[in-house]
Amino acid sequence: MSDWPEPAVDYVQAITDTKLVLGHRYAQWALSGPSLEDDIGGASAAQEEIGHVRQLASKLEAQGRDLEWTKGQRDSDEFANAACLDRIDGDWTEYVASIAPADRAAWYLLDAIDEDDLEGLITKMGEDEYFHLEYHDARLETLAEEDPETVQATLERTLPQALALIGPAAYDESEDPLYEAGFTDRPVSEIRAAFADHYRELFADTDVSLEGVDWDAPAVDDWDETRRRTGTDAISTEDVEQLRGERNAEFALS
């Protein structure tokens, strides 16, 4: 087991936290989809994301992170998940347009890691993520036909938040510390370009315009490298309690 470069632990923690909260959101919405297929797919994705979290948490523990802390035993403002998952207000359309960018951004970050002790794990996770991302895209295309206004309005908020998870555009080959250290095989600027190109192509022939998206976000000076976001927002206290399983523990003791 090799020692990772110092910023790499926070990088993998942000991926792990995004998957942790993403699994939570999948579970919350598992009975709210427009079809049984959507509900089953959401429940299955929740299980897979939590499985990914457990495996990544083990890798983080080997790098010195407390295992229980990584699994959620901390305050809400210590989570480094994609900001578009902090809360999802509205209906199914806003839900899909919130989770899809977060899931894709986390996968792109994970896929860019070039570390021998993570290679097999990333390959296995990629098999799961292929189906997650294909599902998201298919649902977004359908929703772009049914409710383009809501899809567009939601993506104008969530795509920049997902880009913040990836990192600032200024992190090119000469500025990205993890690329320079050899922990990733492509700089953040390249990951961002692939992310943006994907969504521009996905909605190219629809009534959803992405012209209003701030593709340049975040500014380096406003970006928190540890939490990979801007601002001080976080998931709710109630979310943290649910992630910790506190109510289940109280029920077991009663």
Automatic annotation (TrEMBL):
Q: Where is this region: Disordered?
A: 228-254
Any one of the GO CC terms: cytosol
Q: What is this protein called?
A: Phenylacetic acid catabolic family protein
Domain of life per record: Archaea
* PANTHER family in the record: 1,2-PHENYLACETYL-COA EPOXIDASE, SUBUNIT C, PHENYLACETIC ACID DEGRADATION PROTEIN PAA
Task: Quote the biased-composition stretches of kind Basic and acidic residues, using this chain's numbering.
Answer: 241-254
The protein's organism comes out as Natronococcus jeotgali DSM 18795
Q: Name one Pfam family in it.
A: PaaA_PaaC
- GO terms for biological process? phenylacetate catabolic process
